[in-house]
Structure formats: C-alpha cells, structure tokens
# Entry
Amino acid sequence: MNKKERQALLKILLVREELTDKEFNNVIEFIRVELSEGQDTEKTVKKQFSSKKKSRDSITALIISLKDTDNEKYQCINGLYKLMQDGSILKTVSEARKFGDLLGLKNTSSQSKADIGYNIIEALVGMESKAVAQMISQMETTTDKHDESYHRLSEFIIESGKGA
# Structure
C-alpha cells in the first residue's frame, strides 16, 4: 500500500468512527456497487445525492416577488412565513403535513418540515389573494392543539385585507 492509499484508508477510518455500523456498511456498499463499475464519480454522486433542499433565501425571494405585483397576498404570505420561522405556527411536521394536505400538496409523508414549508409557500404564491387568506384562516383546523397564534394570524389577515 502506497502513501496515498494509506492516507485514504486513514480518512475512511475517521469517517467510520462517526457512523453507525449500518450507515458505514451502506456507504461501503454504495462505493462497491456504484463507483466500482467504472461510472463517473461526479455524475453518480449528483444523481444519487442531488440537493432538493430549498434554502430560506429562495423562500424569501419567492415571497418578495409578490411585493410589487400583489401586495395583499405578499402581506398574508409574509406574515405566515414569519410566524412559521419563529415557531408560532406549524410547529410540528404533522401540522405542516396536515396544512399541506389542505392545500392539495401530494407526497408530503416523506418530506422534511423545511421542504413542506417551502412547498406550502410555493403553493400559496400560486393562488389568488382571497384563496390565500381563506386557506390561512383554515389553518387552525390542521393544528394538533389550538392556540393563540392562529387567532393572531387570522386577525392579521383580516386587518391587512382591510388596509389594501
């Protein structure tokens, strides 16, 4: 074994310490099957691990795109997003999934809360202003427990609608 091979082995052993047996075996199996067959490493990794995560920046950009075109919808969705960010609403993955189902989102059962949140915002951006306000006002029915934050959100929507 030459110097580079020993260094690679030491790096693998360091990674091994951070993983469970099952995780490490999955990594080794992936390397054996996918990469040993002479396939291009970069293409394989991109195909297998393409990032579908939507960053907060992209959610913010999606919301800001409404500011000039539909200020009422912007106010509603921005208010909803701020409450989602501070944890006042859609506190659990279960609540996010229920609200996603209410909006007609499909396959939320295997998505993370962050992905569901992005999809919720994306769906609301695509709706008419009145439909957005109506859907947000129905959000309380998707909660695991009723609390004050949903009432505040409904009042915010009603008040912002009057001001526009």
